[in-house]
Every structure is written in C-alpha cells, then in structure tokens.
TrEMBL record, chain A:
Name of the protein in its database record: Anaerobic glycerol-3-phosphate dehydrogenase subunit B
Organism: Halorubrum ezzemoulense (Halorubrum chaoviator)
GO molecular function: glycerol-3-phosphate dehydrogenase (quinone) activity
Keywords, in A-Z order: Flavoprotein, FMN, Oxidoreductase
Gene: glpB
Entry-linked InterPro entries: FAD-dep_OxRdtase_2_FAD-bd, FAD-oxidoreductase_2, FAD/NAD-bd_sf, G3P_DH_GlpB_su
Automatic annotation (TrEMBL), chain B:
Annotated EC: 1.1.5.3
Biased composition (Low complexity): 54-67
Highest taxon of the lineage: Archaea
Keywords recorded for this protein, A-Z: 4Fe-4S, Iron, Iron-sulfur, Metal-binding, Oxidoreductase, Repeat
Enzyme class: oxidoreductase
Listed PROSITE patterns: 4FE4S_FER_1, 4FE4S_FER_2
Domain called 4Fe-4S ferredoxin-type: residue spans: 141-174
Source species of the chain: Halorubrum ezzemoulense (Halorubrum chaoviator)
Keyword Mitochondrion among record annotations: no
Protein name, UniProt field: Anaerobic glycerol-3-phosphate dehydrogenase subunit C
SUPFAM superfamilies: alpha-helical ferredoxin (SSF46548)
GO molecular function, one term: glycerol-3-phosphate dehydrogenase (quinone) activity
PANTHER family assigned: ANAEROBIC GLYCEROL-3-PHOSPHATE DEHYDROGENASE SUBUNIT C, GLYCOLATE OXIDASE IRON-SULFUR SUBUNIT
Keyword 4Fe-4S: yes
C-alpha cells in the first residue's frame, strides 16, 4: 500500500519548505520528501527578492545567421541590468510577462517574505522595510537583498562606519585585502581595510569551516588560550589599520569575519568578540558550504517539525507510479533499489533548477526528470545561449511553465496534471542569477503552490 | 582483479572490450561513461591465499611521465590517434572503477561539512580527500594509502550530503580495505585490536556461553585497565551485558514461528546484537510482526559486516556475507522479504554488499531488504492500527536519536512520525548530530575522546528533552547514549509492541 498524505512536496530547499508550511497552515496533512541533504547548506543564507531588472533586448539587434558559438565573429552586446533596485516590488512590472513574479503576483512575494520572517524569527533582519539592503558578499561585491542574517547586520554597505575585514591564510577562497579593495572600488560610503591574521594556523592547513566553528562554539583551548580570546588577540593589532582621508582612523567600529563564528552559539561568539575588540562584529556570507546556509537549514527544518509536516531525506522520487484522469495518484520513491509508492491528493514539485538537478540536460535537450513535465526550449541547442556571457541567456530561464495556479503546462499551454503544482528553481521564466531573485521566486511560488495544493487536496 | 588494456601494439584493437578474470566485467567502449553508482558492477575481494592478478603488461605500455597512457599509443607520429585515446582507462589498475564517481565531484565540500570527525579531529583531512582525491592518487602503484583513512568512522553521512552522487563511502571502504591489506602491520596491537572489535560476533558467541561470568569479567576494573594498556580499549566504556538466553535460543525454545502464512513472510536478520545482547528487541519484532499476521523466518546468519567494513577487514566481511547471502536468497525464494532491526545491518545488506562483493543473488538480497519499521509502514496501515489500539495507559516520554545509518536510508524521521499521534507517547527528535560512537570507532582508546566530543551535542539535546528514556534503532548509538547520559535506551520496536498491545 502507498504511504499517503494530503499533499506531497518533492524537494528540500527553500521553495519546498515554504510550500510545505503554506499547505500545512491551510490545514493539509503534508509530507516532504527530498533526495539529499537540503541545498540550503550550499546557499549563502541571504534572502534576495529582486535586485536588478536585466535587459531582455540586446543593445543592437542580434545579427542574422547561426549563432557564433564562441567563435570570433561579431559578438552580440547587451546593456547593463537596471539596478541595484532600492525597492524590489517596484521593479516587478518591468519583468517579462512569463516571469514567475508576474504569474503569481507581487502579493505572493510579499506574503512569502512575511512567512519567511515568521519562520526565521530573530535570526534574520530586513523585515521592517520593503527596501533592499546592500550586503557585502565574500567576493567583495555588494548584493541587494531583502532579508539577511542578524550576523551580517553590522556589515551593511549603507552604514558609514569604518570597517576592518579579517582574513586567514588557510581560507584560500577569500582574501581580506582584496575584499576591502573591491568594496572601496565599488564606492561604498566608508573606509575599509583588510588584514590577514594568524589564528587558523593552529588548525590543519585545510581545516573545514565546521572545525573552526566548533572550536569557537565550545571555546576550545588553542595552545592554552581559549579560541575566542585567541581570535580577538590576533585581530586586536589591526584595529587601527584603516586609513581615511586624514591619514588614519582612531579605531575601526566594525570588524568583519568570514562566516564561521560558531554554529549553535553564534550569537554568543559574536558578542564575546565584540566585547573583547570594542567594535561590532559581523559575518561575511561565504560560498558553499556555508554556515549561514546550514543554520538556516536547521531553523527551517525545526519549523517544519513544529508545523507538523512529515519529512524524509535520503531517497529520491523517481517518477509517476500511477495517474488517472489527468491526476497523479502515486509517485515512486526509490529506497535503495526498490521503489515504494507515495500517494497524495496534490503534489508540489520543488526540485530546483539546472544546478539543483530539478532539470536535467544533455546535447539532445532539457528535461524535467521526476514527473517528465514539459520544459520550454528552442529545438536548436545553438539557440539556448547568446554570445555575451552576461547577456539574456535563454537557458537561464528554462524550466516548467506554470499557469496562474502554478500548474505546469505543456507546449500548447494545457495543464499537464490537475493536481501537480510547481515552485522554486524548477519553474522557468526568471533569470535568478542576474536578477538576484532566487530566494524571492522560491518564497513566492512556494507559497502559491503550497496553498493551491492544499486547496486541491481539501476539495 | 586489475583491469588493464591488452597492448599488442595494435592501437585499433586495444579498444575492444576485454573480459577480466572475474568473468563478467567488460571494459567500456571509449568515450562512453561507465554506469553510475547504482549500476556499478560489483567486485569481490580475493580469497585468502588467492593472488590478485597483476598487470603484467603495464610496463610495456607507452606512457607519459605522469603514468598516463599516451594518446598516440606509442607511435612516433605527433598526430593524436583518436581511436587510441581512451578517456576511461588512463589509470590502469585498481579493483573498483569509480572513475565516473570521482569525476562527478565538483569540490563543493558538502561532504566535509557533514563529516562529524572533521569537526573535531585536526589530523583528519575529511571525506573529499579520502574519497575522490585519494581514489585518483591511488591509481598509481607506488602511492600508499594515507593512514588517516583509519580515522574515518564509517558513519557514511558524506553519501547523504553529496549533491552529485559521488560514491564516497564505497571509496572509503575500498581504500580502507587496501590500507589494512597492504600497509597495516598484521602483528600490531592496533590490527589485532581492530580485528577483535570487527569480529564482535566471535567474542559475543564465546561470551554468551557463560553470559553472567562474561558480563562481570569484561567490566572488572583491573581487567579493563589491562585491556586499555594492552589492547587500546578505553577503560571508560562499559561492555554491554550478555543476555542469559540469546534470541536464537529463545526462538528455538518457543518452537519457531507461531504464525504460518505463505502470503506474508519475512526473514528476520537479527544481527549479532539483538541475538547476544538485546534479545528483547528481537522478541518485540516477532510479536509485532505476528500481530500483523506475518510468518517470521529466522535463517542462519552471521555478522552483517558493518564493523568489518569500518575496520577494513573486507575478507572477514566477505566470508560472513557468503553465509548471509546464501541463506537469505533461500528465504527470498520462499517468498520472504528480509527485515532487520538494526539500521546498520539493513544498510549493509542494501548498499555495501552490492557495492563491494560479487556473490550470487547479492542484488536480490539488497533489493528485498528493509528496515523492520520501514517495512511495516509500507505494507500495513500502522497509523490506523495504532489508533485502534488506543495508545499507552501511562504517559511515556522519549528522547529519540536517529542513527547515521538510518539517515542514509531515508529513515531518520520514521520513529518520530510513527509515534507522533499515539496517545501517551511523547517523542522528541534530539537533532541531526552524530552520536560519535560509530560502531567500533568509539571503542578505540585513541578515538575515545573524539567520540565523546562528537557526541556532546547529542547528550546536551537529550538532557534538554523531556523524556528520560532514550530511543534509537542502532545498538552502538544506544551504548553511547547510555554512556553519555545514564539513560535507559529502548528500540522503537519495543514501544511499538507496547503501543499495539501485541
């Protein structure tokens, strides 16, 4: 017999969790099934909504004839995206009509962000305003984002206090001096300096960030000195490193670290460091794997538990097992080589995009591998891309095409299954990387798909 | 078992598939990727005394100084001969061709982040090194396996974390096996200690002949001091008590199955621990399954191999696997599915067996194996049955810990979900941290402190939880939970038995 629930959510990221909680709050009995550990641990932990509106037309008309595929012919050129936007809601009307925000409406984004604020609680900031915050990320770029971890708060680029950025030789993907230089080059309204300090040298050369976080969480002794004290001592000589127009500052007022300041006890670690340094302490969101992402994962899965959602991680949904009358009845879950049927009145597909493997591709085409839904794409794969790497890449918008109820449609625009709803990266139409909209799309479509699924199941 | 290219100087022919000595594995066509993890052809470890086939022709190969076979196949021509270029076979040698798995790694380091050992051990380079990186390094004959492989606790969390399907634990198992086989001193205390720990079944079967004496003697202070000094077994640990009547003795005394049902049969893989130490778990399983009308079979069996994999004792594991597979295949032929009450046993039969051994029927066993509660949740309406039974008379609260090996089967939440709506049961999930014992890992003197450091988070969460009784499916997690908190630990099947009034 099948393992049944009212709503089955397939996926484990932000969209899946949002859909599951939204459906549960409508009274549905919800189960969430995800193949691997949540992709949230790969995410920066920042919640963006809409930072830029990229151009959808090239600066001059594309030349006729076959695409150049990287050969040195006349390359197409694209205007820079409009932005950074001060207000994400204000830009939605200028997105293409097929964009998920246009399909589900800006209210879905607003309610999705409200839901996130509710689930994240005091761990996140930014909910007091519609406006974007500017958060420096580890490459030295400044990202317009709707919500950010409390740990990143003192690092906002709109704050004009002088900033010291601390780096470590063992963290090769991150260079504090280059970071500070790039921030200044970007024209931030404050002076910044970077310093590489000796702290992580006590650990192995390629120590994992979890190792550093654990040592700070437990305040382990490093060569006889508690870890937090040792870190503060290493940073202290650099508190005057920032040079302003007058030739030097008395003392920096905020110090940024790569995001490894504790895991369970992050707040305690930051407070102790701030106390010892006499300056605010903040974390700079890092690339994967990311502690802010891991912390968000923990928090959101706790929230799922509290909302009564059943969830399981480790086994993939591999296909439709039975469908009748245009409705999916059960899907097959692969349990180490043997499939088990999972039944539901409604299904939410939130498996992610090309990177999250919710879409699969080879030279022949792009497919949605779980339910085999239609993915809109040009037949000729030379039309999947344009020459300018920063242009309007068609492949970036690949995904399933939902109707206004989030139900994926086929090439003719007909709903494929009455009771299947899609959310997050698997939904096409957004260019999330250029727009800085990935989290917002997940929240808006997750909320809409979850509610629609619950409505469907309640009928 | 070394696969190689027969180089007869004819570049064209050298690309044809050749059959290797184990008689089943064909070399793939050049340019065509090999099957992924799930279709990986299995291999076996050579029997004692059997000499692994060596690559006699390897020395004759035209090779670049990287040991990589030349794409021009040794010809003078500077033109690359596309037919001679074989991207799949640039690294001759090695037992398992996990090249595609290694290539799938894009170094996101999710595995390292999920590794409980890397979090506390500054000497441990993490699963990304132990897996794909070491796999590449050891393609070369003169490259030793790094000793740190023995610090991997075999929790297999990296498998579950990898977004790219890299067969990390399979790589670790192979590397560990090779390290123990080729590099470890066979007379060292460490080897002997590990072999004893890995072969728990042997010690347990001896001990259970005189269970009371054994329980006393093994935990006798001076004896424990000596064990730590001589054998490296930490004196802080209490050896588990041996049951005065093993599960199999009980099963025989009760006259075997009380229910006959050719349509609903299960073969119970009880493993060593339920047999020698906690027969009450096995008894609970029998009464629950008979309650639902199943005919329970208890086939002859040996150790599932989990502690042997963790210690690189692949030959021991294979010997036990032969007995297990033979008997379980027979049970499957009688219409049974295989169920296990220990999540490491079920994971071993499902995943490690087909990954590491090539035995007749091994895939059937893997495909027909389930964890005991999982099987009931698939085949019975447990929720309704529990609802009808009406719950417990007295309220009980549990602090539940999901074992890593349950996590790897997608079962980490099943106990909490099963009992969530049962009246009188309050069950709290104490979070996703590892208990730190990982089978035999925490039983080694040099690992004891690390093991307790890993477990610290779980102990804390258990103490924060309302329940004063711990619950888990894994016998060694149970030992660690008891050791760290002093709680009594139960298995979900025991609670299920109570809740169903079975």
């Amino acid at each position: 017999m099948a393992i049944n629930s009212d709503v089955l959510v397939i996926g484990g990221g932000l969209a899946a969790i949002t859909a599951a909680v939204s459906a549960a709050r409508e009274g549905a009995d919800v189960r969430l099934v995800s193949h691997k550990s949540s992709t949230l641990r790969q995410a920066s932990g920042l919640i963006d909504a809409l930072g830029y509106v990229p151009a959808t037309e090239p600066a001059k008309p594309l030349r006729d004839g076959p695409p150049t595929a990287g050969r040195n012919l006349d390359r197409d050129e694209w205007p820079d995206p409009e932005g950074p936007l001060a207000d994400p809601f204000e830009g939605i009307d200028r997105l293409p009509e097929s964009h998920p925000y246009r399909v589900v409406g800006s209210d879905a984004l607003r309610e999705g962000l409200d839901l996130f604020d509710d689930l994240a609680g005091d761990a996140y900031r930014g909910g007091h305003t519609d406006r974007n915050a500017l958060v420096p990320t580890f490459g030295g770029a400044v990202k317009p984002t709707a919500r950010y971890p409390a740990a990143a708060e003192a690092g906002l680029a709109s704050d004009d206090r002088p900033m010291l950025v601390v780096g470590f030789r063992s963290l090769t993907e991150y260079d504090a001096r280059a970071f500070a230089g790039r921030l200044e080059a970007a024209g931030v309204p404050f002076d910044a300096a970077g310093a590489e300090v000796e702290f992580a040298e006590a650990f192995r050369a390629d120590a994992k960030i979890t190792r550093l976080a654990k040592a700070l969480d437990h305040d382990e002794e490093i060569d006889g000195v508690p870890a937090r004290e040792a870190l503060a001592k290493a940073v202290a000589p650099h508190l005057h490193d920032v040079v302003d127009e007058a030739g030097g500052v008395d003392r920096v007022e905020r110090v940024g670290f790569p995001a490894f300041l504790g895991d369970d006890r992050g707040e305690e670690v930051r407070e102790e460091l701030a106390d010892r340094l006499g300056a605010d302490v903040f974390e700079i969101p890092m690339g994967p794997p990311s502690l802010p992402g891991l912390r968000l994962e923990d928090r959101l899965f706790d929230a799922l538990d509290a909302e009564g959602v059943r969830f399981e991680t480790g086994n993939p949904v591999v296909g439709v097992e039975s469908a009748t009358g245009g409705r999916v009845e059960t899907v097959a879950v692969d349990r180490k080589g043997r499939t088990a049927p999972y039944g539901a009145d409604a299904f939410v597909l939130a498996t992610g995009g090309l990177v999250g493997k919710g879409l699969d591709s080879d030279r022949e085409g792009v497919r949605e591998p779980v339910l085999d839904l239609h993915v809109d794409q040009p037949d000729d794969r030379y039309e999947w891309f344009v020459d300018d790497a920063f242009g309007d890449q068609p492949y970036a918008r690949f995904g399933v095409r939902p109707d206004e109820r989030c139900r994926p449609t086929d090439a003719e625009g007909t709903v494929q299954y009455e009771n299947v709803f899609a959310a997050g990266g698997v939904v096409g139409g957004a260019d999330a990387a250029r727009e800085k909209s990935a989290s917002g799309v997940s929240l808006a479509t997750g909320l809409a798909a979850g509610r629609q699924a619950a409505t469907e199941a309640n009928q | 078992m070394t696969r190689h290219t027969d180089d007869d100087g004819d570049a064209g022919e050298s690309n044809e598939a050749t059959e290797s000595s184990d008689g089943g594995y064909e070399r793939p066509t050049p340019g065509v990727p090999e099957p992924g993890r799930d279709e990986q052809p299995s291999v076996f470890v050579p029997d004692e005394g059997e000499v692994a086939e060596t690559d006699a022709t390897a020395g004759d190969r035209a090779a670049t100084d990287g040991g990589v076979e030349s794409a021009s196949a040794g010809a003078d021509s500077t033109e690359l001969d596309p037919d001679a270029y074989d991207p799949v076979d640039v690294f001759p040698g090695g037992d398992l061709d996990l090249r595609e798995g290694a290539d799938s790694c894009y170094k996101c380091t999710s595995c390292d982040t999920s590794c409980p050992v890397a979090e506390v051990d500054d000497e441990f380079p993490g699963p990304k090194f132990q897996g794909p990186e070491q796999w590449r390094l050891k393609r070369k004959d003169d490259h030793d396996i790094d000793e740190s492989i023995t610090s991997c606790s075999n929790c297999m969390r990296c498998d579950d974390a990898c977004p790219s399907g890299v067969p990390l634990s399979q790589m670790h198992n192979e590397a560990r096996g090779q390290f123990v086989e080729r590099q470890m001193e066979k007379l060292s205390v460490e080897y002997i200690r590990n072999r004893v720990l890995a072969n728990y079944r042997t010690s347990a079967s001896l001990a259970s002949m005189f269970p009371r004496t054994a329980s006393f003697a093994m935990n006798f202070g001076p004896a424990r001091w000596a064990m730590e000094k001589v054998m490296g077994i930490p004196k802080e640990r209490d050896f588990p008590e041996f049951a005065t009547e093993t599960f199999r003795e009980w099963w025989k005394a009760r006259g075997g199955a009380q229910v006959e049902n050719p349509d609903k049969r299960v073969a119970y893989f009880h493993g060593c621990y339920s047999n020698y130490n906690t027969p009450e778990v096995g008894k609970a399983l029998v009464s629950v399954y008979e309650h639902f009308g199943y005919e329970v079979m208890v086939p002859p069996q040996k150790c599932s191999g989990t502690p042997m994999f963790a210690n690189g004792m692949l030959k021991d594991a294979r010997r036990h696997a032969e007995t297990n597979v033979e008997n379980l295949v027979e049970a499957i032929a009688d219409g049974a599915d295989v169920i296990a009450s220990c999540t490491s046993c079920s994971l071993s039969l499902r995943q490690e067996y087909p990954e590491l051994f090539d035995l007749h029927g091994i895939d059937d066993v893997a495909e027909h194996t389930f964890e005991a509660l999982e099987y009931l949740r698939i085949h019975e309406d447990l929720e309704e049955a529990l609802d009808e039974a009406g719950g417990l008379d007295d309220e009980r609260a549990f602090a539940y810990h999901a074992p890593c090996h349950a996590r790897n089967q997608g079962l980490s939440r099943q106990a909490v979900e099963t009992f969530r709506d049962v009246d009188g049961v309050k069950m709290e999930d104490v979070g996703d941290s590892c208990s730190g014992i990982s089978g035999t890992y925490g039983w080694k003197e040099e690992k004891y402190e690390k093991s307790m450091e890993i477990g610290a988070e779980m102990f804390e969460h258990m103490e924060d939880a309302e329940g004063e009784v711990g619950m888990t499916e894994c016998p060694t997690c149970a030992m660690q939970m008891e050791h760290g908190t002093g709680y009594e630990i139960e298995h979900p099947l025991q609670l299920l038995e109570d809740a169903l009034g079975a």
